[in-house]
Amino acid sequence: MAKNKANQQLETLTDDREELQEPPLYKVLLHNDDYTTMDFVVMILEEIFKKSTDEATQIMLNVHHQGQGIAGVYTREIGETKVAAVHRLARKNQYPLKCSLEQVS
Q1: Which domain holds residue 36?
Q2: Which of 9, 54, 60, 102 is deepest in the core (most CB within 10 A)?
């Protein structure tokens, strides 16, 4: 009988465990404007998002031709930090570059 009680306790312990879920991911988007230079956008992508020059150039062209481009996909906290860094650097250099987060569906 003691054995059954131990099995019940073990079952209860395993039943109480919650399944861990991956955090939702967010796209960090850069938006086109008429004032921010292409070179500055490439520099932002290389410095903040650690993109190669070729990858940064391709994303910058997406921003320029399509109105926006995906700089990266991150958890919400990391994405918010990257957005704030882009806005801080853009303001420091007197550019109106807009950056936003959009949840991946």
Answers
A1: 21-103
A2: 60
